[in-house]
Amino acid sequence: MTEQNTPATPFPAASLLGYPRIGRRRELKKAVEAYWAGKIDAAALDAAAKGIQLTIAKRLQELGLTEAAAVPGTFSYYDQVLDATAHLGAVPARFGKLLNAEGQLDIDGYFTLARGTKDQQPLEMTKWFDTNYHYLVPEIGPETEFTLASNRIVEEFEFALANGIETRPYIVGPVTYLLLSKASDEAPAGFAPLSRLEDVLPVYVQLLEKLAAAGASWIQLDEPALVVDQDTPAAEIEAAVARAYEVLSGAAKRPQILVSTPYGALDGQLGTLAATNIDALHIDAFKGAVPSAAALAGLGNKTLVAGVVDGHNIWRNDLAVAAAKLDELKAAAGRIAVSTSTSTQHVPHDVTEEGQLSEELRSWLAFADQKAVEVKTLASYLADPASAKTAIDEASAVIAARAIAEGVRRDDVRARTEALTAADFSRSAYAVREAAQEDALHLPPLPTTTIGSFPQTSEIRSARARNNKGDLTNEQYEQLMKDEIKRIVELQEELGYDVLVHGEPERNDMVQYFAENLEGFDVTVHGWVQSYGSRCTRPSILWGDVTRSAPITVAWAEYAQSLTSKPMKGMLTGPVTILAWSFVRDDQPLGETANQVGLALRDEIADLEAAGIKVIQVDEPALRELLPLRKADHATYLKWSVDSFRLATAGAADATQIHTHLCYSEFGVIIDAIDGLDADVTSIEAARSRMEVVHDLESHGFGRGVGPGVYDIHSPRVPGEAEVTELLATAVKHVPSRQLWVNPDCGLKTRGYAETEESLRNLVKATKTVRAGLLESAK
User: What pLDDT was estimated at residue 4?
Assistant: First the structure.
């Protein structure tokens, strides 16, 4: 064992892999956005962040996680991958000199990478494994310089320690960091960021040494990329893992090292990590199978941290099943500790705050605080099985009662899904539909549209809150929403858009709105989780069989269409996205639930058509999110996910133009599935990735309408007319112009009106320029 500057501390018997960091009432979101708006200074932001950190640490201790290093130090101002970029000083050359005079990336430089500048787009964003969290993609090339450019992890540890709590510092591990990175613009073709491992490791060693000097007994290095099938050869990854942890475990002074591997089975890399000199290894034993005794034999005296409590979903855990897994692991390994399968950053804080939910439903649920108690119970079971018997029996009884509760299974819903035939999943050939839609819509080349939502102003949010409290009647609220819709329609006509949207002012969230109007769902009041940065969502709870008892969107779409002669899009959220952005029942296959949602949406589309709506968008931004991490499981997922979308849309008439929308993922991986959706028009994120997707579209031979986004709405910057023109020119080079649409990357809900209007105006100006060029070249 390498020299420690503190006595070796056993790994805590019970701990979480991570905890929600936004605050129980989104205090971090509010503080960060206040800082961006110039309402508070950096000192006030720092004070708010420290207050949140200390509140989290004390709460976990109240829940029984009182051992040294039991509280995970997983706080972040924005994103854990961006945190690693900041500590490594890995600033892309295109941002210029962001490090300050002391060689540090201060908070403004940190947020510049996340949000961009007037002249520079921010780091690209994509999904974090199979979750609804999104991270900022590092840009690494041969020219990237690495230096310890942040001391924040050390400062956070010292702050907690000064308040009497020894936390467990956390950072994304070096192999995962490099595997998740993309090659920088300056990198030569074929460059792999993993080739920079030897240059990254010394910075990690420096960080370990600083934490040891500060008194940290443990550090957590997160390596989830090891549970995913990578394009990089397995042997190359194995060599990188062995080398990384040879160097890190060999540091002269360091904390003890926990390597965590959440989100799936570790499989082939288990032996590699077991053979290193790390001190503890976490495995996801909830989603992954329990490793064999032979696979665990190489651990020796390392602590096996068993993630037997689901950190990713909100259902009460079957403690009897978890206890059986612990018995199996205990027989094969030496030292065992209990934890969650993943960080609980993916679930809300505390189910006891959801008093509006029925007592029965609350009994089925476990949010982050309840998962901490479950972990503590299972740790007690390891020490003395009799001590946990009451809790285990109670969990088993609740799970049994849930299975037979009213609404969990409905005969009418199941009869309808069982009666489906192949014909229910197919439309006419695209050529037939295209001709019918041209006759119905009469659109110009490069038609312009937006994705759906317009900015949700403080007035809109206030009206919704007042209506919910009863301070505003339903009639008054409806009139306010109609006034906003009228304003949005008039704005789009003034800007010159071709296919309009009603702006969705009546919708609190693109999934929750439907959950509130479909049977089989419930919604929370305080169930916020972080999606990215300061963006938080409240995933709905899909607990039973799903059906639609009445139209949901029709009246709003019909009213909006009455205000204009231009086509108005009906706006729906697709079945896969409704599942991906909800906490979905875990007692039946996802495909079965998706078909139930698909049928409800099919009924809604029929009613929209009857109301005269000729363009209907069924958003599926989360299609890539649920893609399994192992390639062997892709085909099954893509089959049911594509089928559920087709089930929702296949009843539409030929002349009804069906749109869909996808955003923030590696689309090339699922281009066949995107094609398989058979939508007439697909809008897709492309601005932040600088039109990378058009190469996939070209090589695939994508043959229907497509709108690669030209305005990145996840940044406050306004794209200039020249920038949008350049992006459109790139698109035209790779996709036939007759197929191209012009649109932003995503909905505009989170933006302000001033930046939105300027950006949309530039989009129309750029479109006219490119249209004119197409007409000129056609002469």
Answer: 39
Note the pTM of the prediction, 2 decimals.
0.91
Looking at residue 52, its amino acid is I
Per-residue model confidence as pLDDT tens digits over 12-27? 999 999 999 999 999 9
Separation of alpha carbons 50 and 56, rounded Å: 10
CB within 8 A of 115, min separation 6: which ones?
36, 122, 533, 715, 716, 717
Q: Cβ distance 454 to 492 under 8 Å?
A: no
The 10s digit of each residue's pLDDT in 410-435 is: 999 999 999 999 999 999 999 999 99
- Please indicate whether residue 714 is annotated as part of the active site: yes
DSSP secondary structure, 753-770, as one string = HHHHHHHHHHHHHHHHHH
170 neighbors 115 (Cβ within 8 angstroms)? no
Which is catalytic among the residues 87, 134, 659, 714? 714
**Looking at residue 656, what DSSP letter applies?**
S
Q: How many CB atoms lie within 10 A of CB 733?
A: 11
Q: Which of 679, 682, 693, 683 is nearest to 731 (CA)?
A: 693
The position carrying tokens 């000129």 is 776
Kindly give the interhelix angle for 27-36 and 107-115, rounded to the nearest 10 degrees. Answer: 90
- In angstroms, the Cα distances linking 548 to 408, 426, 518, 586, 605 are 15, 22, 5, 21, 12
Distance (Å, rounded) from C-alpha 142 to C-alpha 146? 11
Q: How far apart are CA 290 and CA 210, in angstroms?
A: 36
What is Dmax (Cα atoms) for the chain?
Answer: 85
Strand positions, DSSP E, 341-480:
none
DSSP output for 547-558: E-SS-SSHHHHH
Report which of 501, 512, 505 is spatially closest to residue 538, judged by C-alpha positions. 512
Give start and end residues of each alpha helix (H) in 255-352: 270-274, 293-296, 319-332
The token duo for 64 is: 């029984």
For residue 38, what is the DSSP state? T
DSSP 167: E
Do residues 222 and 173 make contact, with C-beta atoms less than 8 angstroms apart? yes
- Cβ neighbours of residue 539 under 8 Å, at least 6 residues apart? 132, 511, 527, 529, 581, 582, 583
